[in-house]
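S.,

Sequence below, as promised.
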Amino acid sequence: MFKKKIAVYTGSRSDYEILRPLIFKLKNSHDIKLFVGPHHFQKKFGNTFKLIKKDKLKICYKCLTNVNYNNVDINKFIQDSIFKYKNQLIKTKPDLVLILGDRYEVLSFVIASFFLNLKICHLHGGEVTHGSFDDTIRHMISKMSDYHFVTNDKYKKRLISMGENPKNIYNFGSIGALNIKNTKMIPKKKMYKKFNIPNNCKLVIITFHPETNSKILFKKQINLFLNALKKNSRYFLLFTGCNADPYGNYFNIKIKQFVLKNKNSLFVENLGGEDYFSLIKCSEFVLGNSSSGIYEVPNIKKITINVGSRQSGRLMPKSVINCELKTLKIRQILNNFNYYKKKIKFNNLFYKKNVLFKINDQIRKIINLDKKVKIFYKK
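The prediction came back faster than expected:
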């Protein structure tokens, strides 16, 4: 008996690390056709295809759409990518398409899948991020998808309010929240040695992406943020790289320049899940505007200082301290961190047991259903 085909799309490290355990779970009973987007093959964004290679997963299709990362033309990217994905999807003939998140590279794959009338499952729909154009993209992907795996009941209700059928929406929790709980942490001594961090330093992990839907100009965003970290003597600052967003490469360049001029700082383009989580475990707190600070970091009882509006609108655990993207505001929180720390309580908004088993079982059922015309749902 032939295994049914699932086309899984990964556009960058951000979705691959979350999808990874689900891919291995699904692989036991399905034929996984892995579609890999062009950002994975860029040296300036960490050559993250090596993570897939290390996992010994077979790549069905490498999308090598040309991108000028100094000035990303998203319209052209989506146009060129759709055509390539369409042709490969016609050849592959998947029984189901599985995608995660809200990125523009994911949108191109979903558009190609939608107009080929393929059955689409979407993870992480119903969420809100006011400070990023990903907010609109996420809802576009949801409207083209047939089935939804959300991370919280509030997000399920939002999808229903958008006209999605509640029978096709499943809240099994966050795979990312599970991942960090299941990671075997590398001891602090080994991590400090690996990254040449002085033993007596207090570590801070930093990821700061551009706010792509903001009144603040991109160049000003990174300047405001980095100015707050100048003349730092309190912490060792370990920066991870930005996504392939407009001005993402510019942010990385500015961060590298900062590191050259400031002691007790380091830039690592891509840490990989195990090192990233282990360093967070060693850290005092996490700083920046990455969604991992909301979904994953609270599950190992570490505080996140969330800067600016990129994640504004998401449900926030009690361990997230929100801070305006203003130099003095950021400095104030950093200088008075011990005061804020005393008030923090930890809670799990997105963690549920057996999330992988539940998603896997539901996909088994979905893949055998006939594709139906999607009808707008109204209470």
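The chain is about 40% helix and 15% strand.

Coffee later?
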